[in-house]
Amino acid sequence: MTLTEARPAERTRPVYAPARSRPMWCAASLTVAGAAGAALLVAANRAAEWDRGTQFGLFWLGMLVFTLPAAGWAVRRSTSTRLRVAVLAGYAGFTFLPKLLRNPFGPLYHDEFAHWRQSKEILLDGRLFEQNPIVKVVGDFPGLHSTVASVSALTGISIWHAALLVLAAAHVLVVLGVTVLAEEIWQDGRIAAVSAIIYSLNSSFLFFDTQFGYESLAIALLVWTLVALHRAMRGPARRSRAGWAAVTVMLSGATIATHHLTAIALIAVMIIICLVVTVRAVRRGTPVAVPLTAWGLTLAAAALVVAWLVLVAPRTTGYLDPYLARALDQIAGMAGDGGGGGRTLFRASVAPWWEQAAAFGAQGLAAVAMAAAALRLRRGHGTEPVARSGALAMLVLGAFYFPAALLILTPSGAEGARRSWAFSYLGIALVVAPLVVALLDRPVSRLGKTTAAALLLAVGAIAMIGNTAAGMNPSYRFPGPPVFGSDTRSSIPEVRAASAWLRATQGRELRIVADRYSGLIFGSYGGQNPVTGSVTFPTYDLYLTQPGQPAPRQLIQQLSAWRFGYLIVDKRMAREVPEIQIYFETNEPVPHDGRPAFTLGQLTKFDRTPWTIKIYDSGNIAIYRFDFARAGR
Question: Which spans are transmembrane here (predicted)?
């Protein structure tokens, strides 16, 4: 890794001044700031547990206490290369703290239960590509799970702690990877550092891309694949180009073995780069080796992705299609006369007004920054063809950030929009960073420089707060009292005890029918194979059937044929409304009108149904064993 200190035009200036670098003062100040920031983050979590309402202010104060001085040290002209890398690595480590402190002892987010179970099954049974009952396609992409299981086997630590090590390393690699990629384009260490800091402001950085999920590792692979691609295109000799080309193909293969969406996004970014270098080769006389190398590596990576999706993971298309189709239908509904299909941002959110305002303000700031960066880029960026092409490609990539705002307004498209921002924000970071450095260098007086730095830091703070608020609900960011229908707070000891009882008395890998939230616990800690319903397998019709009415005969036959043995009933469904407005799955035919969708009679009718036998009841959770032979009689 080589981080230059200044642009080529500034080589006449002294760029490395050991006397002014002050590494000891930097280490001391950031250590104090890091300790203070971590203490404030812990205080924010404690305030959230007691529902005091001060957690938002404490959290962002803790983040800014470390982020602002770290950004200052990284951008200083006198900061040496090694010190800048150390500051960025420390910054990456600190930004891993919010998610680490949120759940340091086990899975919490919805997908974490699936990945935790998959990694544990690999460690116990040594088999890859086993189907996961929580997220169906997880088993087809074993990159993260096999890595975590390997670390756990080699070190003897638990699966969860092995995952934390892998995720922390990946988080650091993302920050350093963005830094190196920016330097490949701009040849300036300060711009590279600013690019990494701007990228860390995206909505997924603090919580989503630090969770135990395959995208958390795949993002790092994507960034370093782009680094290798740029170096392959710039290779001064055939041997150098061949070496980086091999690294590019290897990393792209690792990406598709880890996560489907990240691999697809990688191919999309590589195609953008290919198109830009091809146009410039035609119009500007870029050496023909550059577009040939770019297209060759892109086609090789695309072939790997297509082969994996067709031969190894053919279920992926069916898994992704419904989300996109429903999002398009909802967009059409919003555009129609009725205006239906949309969602209200921050509906019933407990986030303070200033977080919500920052969420809208961050999008406006991003648009203004991108427009200014585009105007500045028109004036040219050196003569090096790969660097110029890379900058223009990142501008195109960053422009895709804004159309995703249309998807964020739909219930089905919101998740995809948030995931896309982790990729498109990379383009924003790399083209806006030179503008930031230019604004810092423009004022002549010390007062002017201080004012410019303060304004830029304020803009960065608004972007960090607003993007995070727009991308992650408070219940994901903070602990608190149990909330039914929350992916993070619905796991109460009663549910875990029931799952432990079923596993201890009946065994593991049983086929069970459950709701979304019970299914998470029974499918992970309980080691069972839950189904929560779908259009082709509507198990939720068991719960919807009115007392005294027969259950759908075809569904009973389907359950019997597929050897489902147990039914889980959470009676809270008759008393409370799910926080995320989902009982079973996103396309469920269940009324959502602000009232519980079930009556207690619907949920207790199984006590009198001849083909269900109650074997467990803890008050809220009841477990029934199916006896389909009696249903036939």
Answer: 23-44, 56-75, 159-182, 189-208, 214-230, 264-282, 294-313, 357-377, 389-409, 421-440, 452-472
